[in-house]
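Researcher: If only I could read C-alpha cells as easily as an amino acid sequence. Walk me, if you will, through where the backbone shape changes along the chain. I have put the entry right below:
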Amino acid sequence: MFKTANRPRDSALGPENIDLGGPALVACIDSFEVLPMRKLCGLMAIVGLTLGFSPSALAAEVTRVASSFDEDDPFDLHFGVGYDFTFKRAAIVREWSDGNTNRIARDLLYQQMRHTVTPSLEIGLYRDLAVYLQLPVVVSDTRSYSFDQDADPCVYGDVSPPDEATCVNKDNSTTLRDGIVPRTGFDATNTDDPYGSFAGEDSQEIFRGPNRYGLDQLWVGLKYAILNQDRLSHMPHWVIGLEGRFAVGKPMQFSRNISDEDPASNHAVGRGFHQLGVWTALSRRYRFLNPFFMAYWHQSLRGNSNTSLFQNYGGDVQNKTDPQSQVGVQFGTEIVPFERKAKSKKFAIELSGRAKLLYGGRGYSEVWELLADSPALVGNYSPGMSAACNRNSVMAYAQANPTDPSYIEGAGAAPGCDRFDGITDIQDYAVFGLRAGLVAHLSKYATLTVGADINTNTRHFVTSASRGVDLDDNGVVDAGSAEVNPVRRDVVDNVGRRYLVDDVINVTPYFKFLLTF
C-alpha cells in the first residue's frame, strides 16, 4: 500500500495528553460522541493491526509516492493499467497570396483517433522515494483529411474577392492546386488501389493515412517526497521528480508506394526522439478539499541518427534540428465527498486545468503524412545542392502520371532529388486544457480512476522553415548556394504558402486501475 500517511511516531498512540487534569478528548469521525483517548487509541490500534492501513492518507494522486521501509509497511509496489481514447479534430488552413494581399484560406479538416493502453509500475526504494516506469502501447492510430465544408451555406469559388469561398472542394483546394495530393486523393488503407477511393468529384474525404500501432517511448522516472503531510500534518505534500522518456519504437515514416510494398514504418508510431525532464508537484489536504499544483519541463533530443527523421543536414544554415521541447503546469483540486478511513475507502472528484508551451523545434505536425512523399516537395537535403534536383521535371511527370509513386525515377531525376520526409519546422504554440475525473479508492489495494480531458491549441504555423543564413554578409541568402536551409521547401514554407493549424479540439476519455501492495 502506498505510504502517503506515515507519522514518525506510532499513530496508534494518538495526540500527546497535555491536560494533566484528565484524559485527552478527541471527536469520533463516525459519530457525535466524544471518547476518552485511551479507548480511541485502543480502537485505532486494533483497526491498524487488522487492516494495515495508515489512518490519514491525505495526498492527491499527483503527489502519490510508493514508500518502503516504514515501520508498518516495509515494501510498497504499485501496478496499474490505463486506457485512453483520443479524438482530435483541427482545421488545416493556409496562407494564400495574389501577389498583393496575403490571406488565410480554408482548406482541410484533420481528424485523428488513437487508442492507447499504458501499463505502469512503481516501486518504493526507501521512505518517500520511488522509481516508476510507464510503457504506452498504441493499439490503433488513424488520421484522415477531408475538405472543409462546415460553413452554412457553402460557397465554392476562389479565395479572391469578391467571391470568397466559404467551403472547399476539389476545384479550390490549395493542397490540390499545388499538387501536394493528387486530385484522386490517396487512401493508405487500400493497398490494392490507393488512388481510387476518393476519385469521385463529390468526395469530401481526400486523404487517409495508414493504421498505426506499436511503441513510441518508455518512461522511466525517480520521485521523492521532500515533504509529507501525513508525517508532518502542518506541511503540504511536496514531490520532486526526474524523468526520462526514451525512444524504443520504430520511427514513423510514410511512403505512398504501398501497392508493390507496404513498408513497416508506414505502421509505426515512434517519433524517434528522447525527452529528459524534471517536475514537481504539491498538494495540501483541507478537510474535504485537496488542492494541488504541478509543473514540468521536458527537453527533447534527437534519437538514433540512423533511423530518426530529426537530422542535422545543414550545420549553421539549418536553424532547427531537434524536436520541440515543452514546459507546462497543471493546477486543480480533489473534492472528497466520501471517505471511510477505517475501510481504506475514498471517493474524490478531480477538477483541474493545465497549460503547456511547445517551443524551439521541428516535429510531426498535423500535416506531416499529407506532405511526406509528395512529388510537390521533392528537393535535396545536402546544403548547396538544391540545383541538383530538377523539381520541374518531377512535377511534370507526377501531373501526367498521378498514380505512379516512382515519380523521381520516372522523371529521370535520381539521384539529385530526395523524397520529403514530412518533418517540418513548427512555430511555438500553447495548449490549454481542462480535466474532470472521479477517483475511487475501492480498498487499501485497489484504486479506479475515470475521467475525460479536453484541450485546444493556439493557432500556429506548421510549415515555417527559414530561408537560411547569409554567410557572406551580402544582405541576402543566395539561391542555390550553401546558405539555403536544406529542409526548406518553398511551396509550403514561403510566406503566402504556409500551412497553419487552427480550431483544434482534442478530447480524451480515460480510465486507470491501480493495485497497491
Notes: Confidence is low (pLDDT under 50) at residues 1-56. The radius of gyration is 29 Å. The helical segments are 37-51, 174-177, 368-371, 391-400, 407-410, 490-493. The first strand starts at residue 25 and ends at 27.
